[in-house]
Amino acid sequence: MTVTTIDAEYLGHEGFAATYLLQQGDRAAFIETANAPAVPKMLEVLANEGISPEQVDFVIITHVHLDHAGGAASLMQACPNATLLAHPNAAKHAIDPSKLVRSAKGVYGEERFAQMYGTIDPIPASRVRIMDDESRLDWNGRTLRFLHTRGHANHHFCIQDEASGGIFTGDSFGLVYPALQDDGLFAIPSTSPTDFDAAAAKASLDRIVGTGANTAYLTHFGGVSNLEGVAKQLHAQLDRYGAIVDEAFASDLDDAGVEAFCREQVAALFDELLSAHDLDTPLARRILATDMDLNGQGVAFAVKKRRFKAQKRT
Ligand SMILES: [Zn+2]
Fold first, then answer.
1. Which residue of 1, 101, 117, 301 has the lowest C-beta tally within 10 Å?
2. Alpha carbon of 2 to ligand 1 centroid (Å)
3. Which domain holds residue 120?
4. How many whole angstroms separate alpha carbon 131 and alpha carbon 217?
């Protein structure tokens, strides 16, 4: 019933992205895959536990964002008996990653993409199993329960592991970086593009806490036991993010204006949080720079999406 946290050392950063190794008797499963360059380290941890890649039954991705699923194809190639467990909306991208790869290359460029993710091959459909909401998997007597959790991404699920009392939350239960926890809890939500929905994200928080799990295993980063405390901070911030979306939606700003407004408001929210937590240091700024940027983008995207839907209705 062991859960091992593996630091994927994602893009060279420690304490940023975790993957998890679960052991059940002499069998194993991985939850999250980080990116392809992280796979050798995951296999090394497996070998250290005395388990061969042939004994890996499952590779599970919480959602298809590439810091979670980028290494899935490589890991599946290394573990010939494994089945990939994925959300219905994530499975299609695992089977045919071309759209995902194209959009990531559009963001990062060909060369940077190759450095970050290597190659992402298709995973044969016969090795992919879709897990519906509330589905349960009996893994040699250990039950894994799958909960679809929208808000961060529409292709996201969490995995509850009743045997360990844990729930693997991907990006649905915020980001709690170990390096920023010196003077108490500091959690932030991830509102990155393209599916951010504040109300759905809040409902997902309640659903996660409602499972009664004693530990939430976050991808960014590690196990946290104070689920109520994390949820409280995230709820308060998601209210603010929701209000930014509402205000921008109601304004007469054009697309560029919405983008600038959302980024400014999100940056101001980060300023406020960092000073409230006495965390406004260059280290904290460096750790949070990408999230601040992505959160601003995601909020602006949510406004544009809502406008597009409203236009279609009229
Ligand atoms: Zn994500």
1. 1
2. 25
3. 3-226
4. 19
**Do 184 and 120 sit in the same domain of this protein?**
yes
Ligand 1 centroid to residue 50 C-alpha, Å: 31
Provide the pLDDT confidence category of residue 155 given band limits of 50, 70 and 90. Answer: very high
Q: What is the pTM of this model?
A: 0.97
Q: Is the peptide bond before 249 cis (omega within 30 degrees of 0)?
A: no
State the distance from the centre of ligand 1 to the C-alpha of 118, rounded, in angstroms.
Answer: 19
Determine the distance separating the centroid of ligand 1 and the alpha carbon of 86, expressed in angstroms: 14
Query: Taking Cα atoms as reference points, which of 176, 308, 301, 283 lies closest to residue 241?
Result: 301
The predicted structure's pLDDT at residue 234: 98
CA of 252 relative to ligand 1 center, distance in Å = 30
Integer Cα distance of 60 and 71 in angstroms: 11
How many domains is the chain built from? 2
* Whether residue 123 sits in one domain with residue 11: yes
DSSP state of 124: P
Question: Is the pLDDT assigned to residue 37 strictly greater than 90?
Answer: yes
